[in-house]
């Protein structure tokens, strides 16, 4: 249970980091890029097996992993933009309730998966929850489109991750090397964009990336521990509900982000929907 609580705290911390970047004039693109380098190095240092370059190059999962690494850096940037422009509560909600996309796909596409009335009710409530949470009484300075993109993008990202894990990663060695590679590819993709845009890399952005990369890697490390200890049927609903609630509370307490009764209703419905989809 300790590992699960730490995962919730660390994941919520990522959203706070993005919010602070905008307040402290940090170049988010550069910070995210060096965040992935930090996470990749931590993955290498914490790996208990020798890394085989030849095994990685010849692995059947290298091409989807490269594609996933590029998608990683794109989605992390979208998450940062959503947090900075629309607030922590909307960003956390969009990224976490997107869990319904891979779950819905699994229920429809996997032959051995039962689709019950309760599952269907959970998906319907999740759709309503998204609308309630995104609905604002006052006119937003930025369009809500970026949050919708985050919702679908995060859901697709979870689907691809699940596909690679089930179809390609055969043992713990594969998984360890996969994590290192996907983070390093994300770093290279971000670095190429910086070079293409001819941006000057600043030390404060590198330090911000390190500050982001540590909780980013640790959140993955602890969620793997939690899955091993408690199983996905407990971890995933508690994790997603915990992140949404904690992020919303922190955004209200620290940044005074206003949430209407309708928004809080949406968050409550999201929690119920995740339970209905994953537990029943």
Offer a few descriptive terms.
single chain, 280 residues, mainly alpha, 12 helices, 0% strand, globular
Could you characterize the architecture of this molecule?
- There is one protein chain.
- The chain is an all-alpha fold and 280 residues long.
- The chain has one domain (2-278).
- It contains twelve helices and no strands.
- α1 runs parallel beside α11 (232-255) and α4 (62-86) packs across α9.
- The radius of gyration is 19 Å and the shape is globular.
Topology, please?
Elements: H1 2-23, H2 28-46, H3 53-58, H4 62-86, H5 88-97, H6 100-109, H7 117-134, H8 145-167, H9 172-196, H10 203-230, H11 232-255, H12 261-278
Helix pairs in contact: 1-4, 1-10, 1-11, 2-4, 2-9, 2-10, 4-5, 4-8, 4-9, 5-7, 5-8, 5-11, 6-8, 7-12, 10-11, 11-12
Low-confidence stretches: none
Helix fraction by DSSP (H/I, runs of at least 4): over 70%
Largest sheet: none
Ends distance: 21 Å
Number of strands: 0
Order of helices and strands: HHHHHHHHHHHH
Looking at the structure, what is the overall shape? globular
What structural class do you assign from the helix and strand content?
Answer: mainly alpha
On the 0 to 100 scale, the average pLDDT is 82
Number of domains: 1
Tell me the number of helical segments per DSSP (H or I, 4 or more residues long): 12
Percentage of residues in strands: under 5%
């Amino acid at each position: 249970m300790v590992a699960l609580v730490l995962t919730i705290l660390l994941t919520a911390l990522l959203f706070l980091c993005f919010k602070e970047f905008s307040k402290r004039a940090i170049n988010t693109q550069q910070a995210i890029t060096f965040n992935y380098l930090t996470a990749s190095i931590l993955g290498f240092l914490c790996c208990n097996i020798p890394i085989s370059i030849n095994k990685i190059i010849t692995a059947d999962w290298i091409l989807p992993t490269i594609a996933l690494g590029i998608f990683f850096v794109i989605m992390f940037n979208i998450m940062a933009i959503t947090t900075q422009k629309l607030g922590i509560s909307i960003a956390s909600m969009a990224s976490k309730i997107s869990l319904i996309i891979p779950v819905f796909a699994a229920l429809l596409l996997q032959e051995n998966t039962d689709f019950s009335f309760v599952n269907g009710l959970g998906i319907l409530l999740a759709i309503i929850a998204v609308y309630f949470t995104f609905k604002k009484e006052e006119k937003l300075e930025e369009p809500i489109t970026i949050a919708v993109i985050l919702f679908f993008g995060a859901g697709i990202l979870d689907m691809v991750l699940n596909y690679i894990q089930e179809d390609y990663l055969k043992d713990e060695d594969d998984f360890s090397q996969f994590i290192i590679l996907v983070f390093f590819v994300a770093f290279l993709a971000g670095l190429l964009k910086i070079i293409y845009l001819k941006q000057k890399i600043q030390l404060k952005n590198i330090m911000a990336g390190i500050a982001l990369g540590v909780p980013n890697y640790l959140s993955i490390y602890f969620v793997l521990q939690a899955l091993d200890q408690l199983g996905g049927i407990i971890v995933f609903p508690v994790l997603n509900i915990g992140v949404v609630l904690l992020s919303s509370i922190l955004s209200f307490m620290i940044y005074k982000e206003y949430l209407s009764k309708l928004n809080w209703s949406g968050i409550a419905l999201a929690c119920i929907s995740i339970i209905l989809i994953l537990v029943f």
